[in-house]
Amino acid sequence: MSIELTHISKAFGTYQALRDVSLAINDGELVALLGPSGSGKTTLLRIIAGLDTPAVDPRSRIRFYHEDVASRPAAERRVGFVFQHYALFRHMSIFDNVAFGMRVMPRKSRPAKNEIERRVTELLRLVQLDGLGRRFPSQLSGGQRQRAALARALAVEPRVLLLDEPFGALDAKVRQGLRTWLRRLHDEIHVTSILVTHDQEEALEVADRVVVMNQGRIEQIGTPEEVFHKPATQFVMEFLGQVNVFRGRVQGGKAVLAGVPLEGHYFPGKEEGAAMVYMRPHELDIKLYKNGAPSFPAKITRINPAGSVAKVTTRTNDGQDVLVDLSLEDYERLNLTEGTHVHIYPKSSRVFLPEYEI
Amino acid sequence: MVDGTEVSGGRMSVTVQSLPGAIPKGSLVETNLAGRLRLATDERSWVKALLITSTLVFLTLVLFVPLAAIFAEALRKGVAVYFASFTDAHALSAIRLTLLVAIICVPLNLVFGLAASWAIAKFQFPGKSMLITLIDLPFAVSPVISGLIFVLLFGLRGWLGPWLDSYHIQIIFAVPGVILATLFVTFPFVAREVIPLMQEQGSDEELAAVSLGASGWQTFWRVTLPNVKWALLYGVILCNARAMGEFGAVNVVSGHVRGKTNTLPLHVEILYNEYNFAAAFAVASLLALLALITLALKSAVEWRVRREFEQALEPPT
């Protein structure tokens, strides 16, 4: 266990940014803190770095490798922090930026001049900026700047690397490239890392584990697969990817949607009540005719086949829009057009009962 | 690439052709765009000529002629008289006092300006907007009023005067008064230059430095100060020019004691009132020279500051 946070709260004035959050991160893990803006993820990151302090609470602890660092200032925590807008020192060359952390060390622990030079060169090679050490930040592209910032953070051999929306200011293409690159880099150097992002795709693709946050609380911690396929709460279900939400009911312990019982959702002891039914677009199928399996009729209102799947928007008889992802083969085979009357077949679904969540 | 667009140093600068013929045929959009821009921004040549001429005439009347007159009048009685005006004991004492005032006021206001900018740009605290307004106060009030405030405070009939007098401390009509008045009048110069730049730059770099293990002192010397050094120098140049040239406030508190509390601008006035025109203009030429040097330094530093500002404003790409 390399990082342990217990009972962390934080308020800014009347705004409660974090509500009693506890989190443990394993050695060498890459964890993503994922949530909408205002969910408290960046505040949590800054508290770990020591750039912010948690609310006073006798139970609250911040431990790095079993050592309590809560009272240590940021400068003594040995964290590498990567900012969304890079925060490179604009008047220093890239080389000097990377060397900064070593040069400000106390004289007795500071590496010798040629040792600093060797390590900076090595780090620049690691982040694929060899030969650009003499440039200034303004002479680099956004992606290069962020890699330089990463090298600078790694130069102090941090116990933990903290990345605050590191790709948030980059355009989609560069972002995708850097994401893959970051994952490869992490596999190479294995430094415990925490990545803050509001981009679920980024979190699911890069992280070993994802911490989904909402309104200052942790909603779920799990592998990308777990949070995507087994969301613990309605929030996680709705936040990760697109989802269709239906108002269903529970009748005699079974979930029922529009009179059709849903397979696999049983609530023993619950006779009658409301239920929220969630189905992702890829968990629905479209057929032109009824085949006996549970289905509901709908009309196609829009088709967008530009992508790896055809995104079909339909409207049910009671006026609800339902999104369906159809494979391009199925889309062509069915010969769908806007206005076609079809039947929608749920392949799987998740049901959440208010005050009774599974 | 659109015709007439050039990329220089990573920044785009668009120059629009003013002649429609210079735009290649078949590029309708550019023709229209350039045509419209030309109508909107370019004036007829006679309008241009008129504007430039009237500006030049105005500048000649209020700037070039007076400036030339200073040097012409100063040298009217020959080079010997000109230089003799500086070696006069009272003139030398005025030069010394002016330098002393600048040497004391500029560093103090440098430190004050930097501290105020730091506080305003990097922290949130109650009364912050009030402080920003107060920094501009010396610009808002007449220098004569600034001088009077000190007379009211420290003069023999003022609030603190009798008490100070009982310890034989004289501030008004003495050197400390001159320094205090100058200090007050010149204190916004540095802060006004540095605050906007610091606000634009934010505190991310400082946070980065701290997270990399730098102490507060190291962060200041290695990150904060280098980031504002040109704006700081710009402020110092302006502050110095004003400290040496201030008349109004100093005039009220100095008491015109020859050889003791006269600064260069006051000395000029005295010489002039005594009909000693050659000497008055000679000393004035010294101040004019200072202004010219300041102007040259100012424009040299100005483009560096502008560059840093542009970099600070540049959206992260």
Key features of this structure:
A: 358 residues, alpha+beta, 5-stranded antiparallel sheet, 25% helix, B: 317 residues, 3 domains, two-stranded antiparallel sheet, globular, disordered N terminus
Description:
The complex is a heterodimer of chains A (358) and B (317). Chain A has helices spanning 41-49, 94-103, 113-126, 142-154, 172-189, 200-206, 224-229, 234-239, 328-334, and strands at residues 3-12, 15-25, 30-34, 61-64, 67-68, 79-82, 160-164, 193-197, 209-214, 217-222, 244-251, 254-257, 260-266, 272-279, 284-287, 296-304, 309-316, 321-327, 341-346, 350-352. Chain A is built from nine helices and 20 strands. In chain A, strand 11 and strand 12 form a beta hairpin. In chain A, helix 2 packs across helix 3 and helix 3 crosses helix 4 (142-154). Chain A is elongated, with a radius of gyration of 25 Å. Chain A is an alpha+beta fold and 358 residues long. The model of chain A has no long low-confidence stretch (mean pLDDT 90). The longest helix of chain A has 18 residues, at 172-189. A six-stranded mixed β-sheet of chain A has the order 6-7-8-3-9-10, sandwiched between helices. In chain A, strands 13-12-11-14-20 form a five-stranded antiparallel β-sheet. With 317 residues, chain B is an all-alpha fold. Chain B has three domains: 1-42, no CATH class; 45-74; 77-313, MetI-like fold (Orthogonal Bundle), CATH 1.10.3720.10. Chain B is 74% helix and 3% strand. Chain B is built from 15 helices and two strands. In chain B, strands 1-2 form a two-stranded antiparallel ribbon. In chain B, helix 3 crosses helix 15, helix 10 packs antiparallel against helix 12 and helix 12 packs antiparallel against helix 15 (277-313). Chain B is globular, with a radius of gyration of 26 Å. The chains are: A alpha+beta (358), B mainly alpha (317). At the A-B interface, strand 6 and helix 4 of A face helix 11 and helix 12 of B.
